[in-house]
Design a protein that fits this description.
The complex is a heterodimer of chains A (about 325) and B (about 725). Helix content of chain A is about 40%, strand content about 20%. Chain A is α+β, with helices and mostly antiparallel strands and about 325 residues long. In chain A, helix 6 runs parallel beside helix 8 (about 285-305). Chain B is of the alpha+beta class. The chains are: A alpha+beta (about 325), B alpha+beta (about 725).
Chain lengths: ~325, ~725
């Protein structure tokens, strides 16, 4: 698929030569499997799992297939742009298939093949890794997927989300895009990744796009983030979540909940604010647990509300 | 005789669960067969990442016929009883029953029921799905469409196919006819995921193993381990290196591959500045690779062994290069941690310990360090350590918990502290104590011998034990979340194996409790409460130590009744003395004098028990020497011997000469024997009788100088 654009023969969109080529390839691959290709959720989240297209859609009986890129923020992982592997903002490629098809492992391997990982040359392994998100009240069993000793994806069969048993179970694949790209491009420093596939003057690197942001956000996350404001925001988001859940609660006329998703947005917000406070080091070990618990309670309430919506399969 | 072949093929089974799962499968199937009367000649189970397999050899084709005679009602019984009998025996009419004559009961009906043995195939079809449905995985899951329904099959990861055949070696075996959640048992399986993706037809165990082998699957984990170990050693040898063997890692790696291909990678020599243990920890934990050392030395080589699951078309070049990349990134991290850590003195890390909660009710790690340092200082003279050094080592002992390296590899705690302490110029015994204060961890771990390390190790464990006791977090049943049993065993081994005399109540309990009062504890220990044996916590902790000591001594072959006999004496809180006393008592009871004295004691105790009960009083007054003088000569002799022996035994015990104390008691054997032979305890003369009972009581009292003989068996 190189030189797909006749107007610009300088770019090569093969996954081996461009970061965005890798993304486009994965999108095409999963689109061909019948997934809806969504765009990133427009809020700050810690992982692709937080996108309502995963968290909420994993609940209830309705089949669902989606794939999307999700920018993910881990304030604590910021390294001021000085670490070749760690970023406080990075991309995950997320695939969610409910129920999981019986050949999900084969599909996953085919997707690796599509991005140029040759199974005759590379050692692919599924190594036990049980996934759990205490803030989402979610857990599942699965693996880290290794390519020549490097973890390139997470593979999870969701068993529970928002404290609710998944019926049916969804399969979730999460590709760490930067790491995967570094592997297929053969670079050792994330900032050296070729982003657009261009060469010479046309080449745009990952560093060109993100180095400055990593520096600025590291400063923000560790030194400047306004903790008084963040504590306020946490409380506000928590309160708003409850308010929206109450306001949308089923009334006499209908059994349906009418505001599960706006409420869940506030849960996402609370979670991110908590991560920022954690990075600022203002939450003690004991408090930490109680904050996580508070977010989980929101997630559970939102999950329960979503089950009473059309999307959640309510009658 | 026919064989069963069963294969349960799934997506990748966690390595750590495979061995246990194979054992469970074998046990569950063979138990279910035996329970139904089906004996077998042999059974063996196997596990790879993608399958559990079981071979049961030498089963009968069908079960044994069963003949059962059932008694019915007497002849002429009411119609209802007869009909009930016919129904339960499965007879159409009384013509099919026989009439039996019983001399007492007269004539009654009986039925002979003959049940042919069941086909083994049918029995297997019944038990296998049950076993699969209730398989004891430590963690299991649901998947796919079926998971929408309640009661869906659970397995460790999605179960893909089942092979189940049964039949003799010479014929085509039958498929065991069953299905679980839509997975129908058959004869088709698959080999290696990448090297042999085509379906394989199998019939029985022998061709199953061969077919798998052709399809690049080594079924037996022991063979996979052998291959990995030998290939790794050979590869190492060819480069003048030696494999650093690691059984746990080998087992894990063998559970990650179906077709092991061993390769060697290397890393930059400059990484060898990092402590060897840290290199090994990162390569092991993150990459599941073995490290290597230069042959005949303890020095690590800049190389590692990886085990891939693929015969790659380039001979493994890309795989090796990929693994080297990851190892390089990991070692870069480790090197960064090491360099960063070295820049900060351990002393400067101490404030950070105050932000780590050790336990909600026991303060922070910082406060704990203060307690351990104070306690180590107090214990130092008792173990022959310099108090300043002990306090210094204890102060630094936990500082490495906030280093980058230990944050990343918790298993390096202590060891990194030692390295950093040595680098900042701490005395060798301080550095060593920082590493060793966690020891011994369990019954086979090394026990520190350097006095400074012993002091800190004791302080660490006593603080833990007394702390958790004071907040009532004692181990119960199988629950011991703070590993307090291990801590108590650690104290016992430190004391006994270093022959340290220490009063657990005074030097241990009380001193540790002082620490808790001063630094961070919120215990029930009141500031002014007198601590003594009457203190319930102290008493219960001492009893806990007694229990642990029993386990410890039992493993060494000591009799538990002797330990009880010694602990039954008051004030036994010096474990070394308890052990010495138990040893001396044990040896004494092996001698004739000891055995006879014990027999004499038991006789005396029995008489006393009976007479004291009869009279409703005790005879604990001292015997009257004058009174004894008027009695039999044997009576006088015993009175004199008792006075002497008791005094000698008491003095010997005070001098911690337990053998001497036993020796003193042994002089009682002859007078006791003579007394029982010649003297009637229950004399008609009331004064004589009272005094003789008092003599027996004096014997009981004399033996209590060394132990409570009533607790001794035999």
């Amino acid at each position: 698929m190189s030189s797909a654009n006749p107007l610009s023969s300088a770019v090569d969109l093969a996954p081996k030569t461009s970061f965005q080529g890798l993304i486009l390839t994965l999108q095409r691959f999963w689109a061909a499997q019948g997934c809806v290709i969504l765009q990133p959720y427009d809020m700050e989240v810690g992982a692709g799992t937080f996108h309502p297209a995963t968290t909420l859609r994993a609940l209830g009986p309705k089949p669902w297939k989606a794939a999307y890129v999700q920018p993910s923020r881990r304030p604590k992982d910021g390294r001021y742009g000085e670490n070749p592997n760690r970023l406080q903002h990075y991309y995950q490629f997320q695939v969610i298939l409910k129920p999981n098809p019986p050949n999900l492992q084969e599909l996953y391997l085919a997707s690796l093949d599509a991005i140029g990982v040759d199974m005759k040359l590379h050692d692919i392994r599924f190594v036990e890794d049980d996934w759990e998100s205490p803030t989402l009240g979610a857990w599942g069993l699965g693996w880290e997927c290794w390519c020549d000793g490097m973890e390139v994806s997470q593979f999870t069969y969701f068993q529970q989300v928002a404290g609710i048993e998944c019926a049916p179970v969804a399969g979730e694949l999460t590709y760490g895009l930067e790491r995967l790209a570094m592997y297929v491009q053969g670079v050792e420093n994330v900032y050296d990744l070729n982003f657009n596939g261009g060469t010479g003057d046309e080449r745009v690197s990952y560093g060109d796009v993100f180095l400055q942001s990593e520096q600025e956000y590291s400063r923000h996350n560790f030194e400047a983030a306004d903790t008084a404001m963040l504590f306020r925001q946490f409380t506000d988001a928590e309160k708003a979540c409850r308010t929206y859940l109450d306001a949308g609660a089923p009334t006499g006329e209908s059994d349906r909940h009418r505001m599960a998703q706006p409420a869940y947005d506030q849960c996402i917000k609370a979670s991110h604010v908590f991560n920022l406070l954690d990075a600022r080091g203002v939450i003690s070990v004991t408090e930490r647990q109680s904050y996580i618990l508070r977010v989980r309670e929101l997630a559970k309430a939102c999950g329960a509300a979503y089950l009473r919506t059309a999307g959640g399969g309510a009658a | 005789m026919p064989d069963l072949l069963l294969e349960l093929r799934s997506e990748e089974i966690p390595a750590r669960m495979q061995r246990r799962a194979a054992d469970d499968l074998r046990k569950l199937v063979t138990d279910a067969l035996v329970e139904r009367g089906f004996l077998y000649e042999g059974a063996k189970a196997f596990a790879t990442p993608r399958r559990l397999a079981l071979h049961v050899a030498g089963l009968p084709p069908r079960g044994q016929d069963v003949r059962e005679e059932r008694k019915g009602p007497r002849v002429g019984a009411p119609e209802g009883a007869v009909q009930g009998f016919l129904k339960s025996a499965g007879l159409a009419s009384l013509d099919q029953a026989t009439i039996v004559t019983d001399p007492k009961k007269g004539e009654f009906y009986a039925a002979v029921i003959e049940r042919p043995g069941r086909e083994t195939l049918d029995v297997l079809a019944e038990i296998l799905p049950q076993i699969i449905r209730s398989f004891p995985w430590p963690k299991s899951m649901r998947w796919g469409k079926a998971s929408a329904q309640p009661g869906a099959l659970r397995w460790v990861r999605p179960l893909q196919s089942i092979v189940a055949t049964f039949g003799p070696e010479t014929e085509t075996p039958d498929v065991v006819p069953f299905a679980v959640d839509g997975i129908v048992a058959g004869t088709t399986t698959y080999g290696h995921r990448f090297l042999a993706p085509e379906a394989i037809e199998v019939r029985r165990f022998n061709d199953y193993v061969q077919a798998l082998e052709r399809a690049k699957v080594v079924l037996d984990v022991e063979r996979r381990k052998d291959i990995i170990l030998h290939d790794a050693r050979d590869l190492a040898f060819a480069r003048g290196l030696e494999l650093v063997e690691d059984e746990g890692l080998l087992e894990e790696v063998a559970g990650l591959v179906e077709w092991p291909v061993v390769l060697m990678g290397s890393f930059d020599e400059t990484f060898l500045d990092i402590p060897a243990e840290a290199i090994r920890a990162t390569i092991r934990a993150n990459q599941k690779c073995f490290v290597l050392r230069r042959a005949g030395t303890d020095t690590l080589a800049p190389a590692f062994i990886l085990t891939s699951n693929l015969v790659a078309s380039d001979g493994g070049l890309a795989i090796t290069a990929g693994n080297e990349r990851v190892v390089r990134a990991r070692l870069s991290d480790a090197k960064f941690f090491w360099e960063t850590d070295k820049a900060i003195r351990l002393d400067d890390r101490l404030p950070k310990l105050y932000s780590i909660v050790f336990h909600e009710k026991l303060g922070t790690q910082g406060e704990r360090v203060q307690r351990i340092a104070a306690l180590a200082r107090e214990l130092a003279p008792l173990v022959g350590a310099d108090p300043d050094l002990a306090e210094r080592a204890a102060t630094l002992a936990k500082a490495d918990l906030v280093t980058e390296m230990v944050g990343e590899f918790p298993e390096l705690q202590g060891l990194m502290g030692r390295k950093y302490a040595a680098l900042q110029g701490e005395p060798e015994s301080v550095a060593a104590a920082i590493e060793d204060h966690y020891k011994p961890v369990g019954p086979s771990d090394r026990v520190p011998t350097d006095p400074v390390a012993v002091a800190v190790a004791l302080a660490d464990k006593l603080d833990t034990l007394v702390g958790f006791w004071s907040i009532d977090e004692k181990p119960t049943g199988s629950k011991d979340p703070y590993a307090l049993r291990r801590a108590a065993l650690g104290v016992i081994r430190l004391l006994i194996e270093n022959t340290v005399k220490l009063s657990l109540l005074h030097d241990g309990y009380q001193a540790a409790a002082d620490g808790l009062r001063n630094y961070g504890g919120t215990p029930r220990i009141e500031a002014d409460a007198a601590l003594s044996e009457s203190d319930a916590d102290a008493a219960s902790l001492l009893a806990f130590f007694a229990d642990r000591l029993k386990v410890y001594l039992r493993d060494k072959g000591a009799r538990h009744d002797l330990i009880d006999a010694v602990f039954a004496l008051p004030g036994q809180d010096d474990l070394l003395m308890v052990v010495r006393r138990v040893e001396a008592l044990g040896s004494f009871l092996e001698t004739d004098d000891g055995k006879n004295l014990l027999a004499g004691y038991k006789r005396a105790a029995n008489i006393l028990r009976i007479e004291e009960k009869k009279d409703g009083r005790t005879y604990d007054a001292a015997p009257d020497a004058g009174q004894a003088a008027t009695g039999e000569p044997e009576e006088r002799a015993l009175a004199e011997a008792l006075a002497v022996a008791r005094e000698k035994a008491s003095a010997a015990v005070a001098a911690e000469d337990f053998a001497g104390a036993m020796q003193a008691l042994s002089t009682l054997r002859a007078p006791v024997d003579a007394f029982f032979e010649r003297v009637t305890v229950n004399a008609d003369d009331a004064d004589l009788r009272r005094n003789r009972l008092a003599l027996l009581n004096a014997l009981r009292a004399a033996t209590r100088e060394v132990a409570d003989f009533s607790r001794i068996e035999g």
